[in-house]
Design brief:
Layout (H helix, E strand, L loop, with lengths): L2 E3 L6 E3 L1 E4 L10 H13 L4 E2 L9 H9 L9 E6 L4 H15 L4 E6 L7 H5 L5 H10 L3 E7 L4 H13 L6 E5 L10 H4 L1 H7 L2 E5 L15 H10 L4 E5 L3 H13 L5 H15 L6 H4 L5 H4 L9 H4 L5
Parallel strand pairs: 3-4, 3-10, 4-5, 5-6, 6-7, 7-8, 8-9, 9-10
Antiparallel strand pairs: 1-2
Helix pairs in contact: 1-2, 3-5, 9-10
Length: 311
């Protein structure tokens, strides 16, 4: 396994991470989910992704069971919370700690930063980041980041609002794939800024749960190689079988830094298919937006704002 440094934290993390969403899917029983996590850890992957809302908590519960019997010591555990208010973020974090059966989560990220109002809610004095900073001081978590899949401009604005509030994130997660390179590109707009700030870069949706592969332009290994070739600390990939776990390790075994010619060849394969965002529906539709379907996960708006709005 290739290990990389997680930005300015100095933590050593595996270049491939296990995505948590797949661990709770209906066709993945609990025994298989536990086997995937433990096999990944035994073979050198240490970065585990998850989220408070994945599969109504089942993904965290299964990961928590997999982390028993000494496996917690092998893992760098990340999860995400949706709450924008301090109250809701605190509640979700405590639920994640209980499900994961840990006293401290290595990295907690603000999930689905999709809207330009999200940074303002999170950095409100009674917002979610205040909850995470307090939890960090209490030893419930170690590092703080954010994620999103909609538009690179929202990511850049989140970084701007954080700076205005005197805060620097430890990590940022975003779609990094062969389609993204051509359309509303996180790799072109956000990654250079993160490199400049020495913030850990977490790539996701390298295949977009197989949607990219339906373009019939590239293979799974090519998708993973492209994401690994970027200045990512970790490329998080969904794993729902032992065969897909083997595929991730094969991508690592066969990876080498891509030459300009190799990179141009891969990008040429996907340029036409990527031009309209068709194979990145997380950017162009609301299908992937869990907080759009469940706005209650975000918590209440600040009271002084609600008082301004006519009933």
């Amino acid at each position: 396994m290739i290990c990389r440094t997680l930005g300015h934290t100095g933590e050593k993390v595996s270049a491939i991470g296990v995505g948590g969403w797949h661990l709770g899917l209906a066709h993945v029983d609990e025994d298989l989910a536990i086997r995937i996590v433990r096999s990944a850890l035994d073979r050198g992957i240490n970065f585990l992704d998850n989220c408070w809302d994945y599969n109504e908590g089942a993904s965290e519960v299964r990961m928590g069971k997999a982390l028993r019997d000494g496996y917690r010591e092998k893992a760098f555990v990340m999860t995400k919370i949706d709450g924008r208010s301090k109250k809701e973020a605190t509640k979700q974090l405590d639920e994640s700690l209980e499900r994961l059966q840990v006293d401290c989560i290595d990295l907690v990220q603000h999930h689905e930063i999709l809207r330009f109002e999200d940074p303002h809610r999170i950095f409100h004095p009674d917002g979610a980041n205040a909850a995470l900073v307090e939890a960090r001081a209490a030893g419930k978590l170690r590092y703080i980041g954010f994620t999103g899949h909609k538009d690179p401009r929202v990511h850049l604005y989140m970084l701007e609002v954080a700076q205005q509030n005197g805060f620097k994130f430890d990590t940022v997660q975003m779609p990094l794939n062969l389609m993204d390179a051509h359309y509303r590109s996180f790799s072109k707009e956000v990654v250079p800024q993160l490199v400049k700030l020495n913030i850990g870069i977490l790539g996701m949706k390298s295949m977009a749960n197989g949607i990219l592969l339906k373009s019939n332009t590239v293979t799974p290994i090519e998708c993973l190689h492209y994401a690994l070739n970027l200045p990512t600390s970790v490329v998080i990939t969904g794993i729902d079988s032992m065969e897909i776990l083997d595929q991730a390790f094969e991508a690592i075994r066969t990876f080498h830094s891509l030459s300009p010619e190799e990179l141009d060849e891969l990008l040429a394969k996907t340029s036409t298919a990527a031009s309209t965002g068709r194979f990145e529906p997380f950017k162009t539709t609301s299908i992937f937006d869990g907080t759009a379907v469940h706005p209650e996960w975000l918590g209440e708006e600040p009271p002084e704002v609600r008082q301004l709005v006519p009933a």
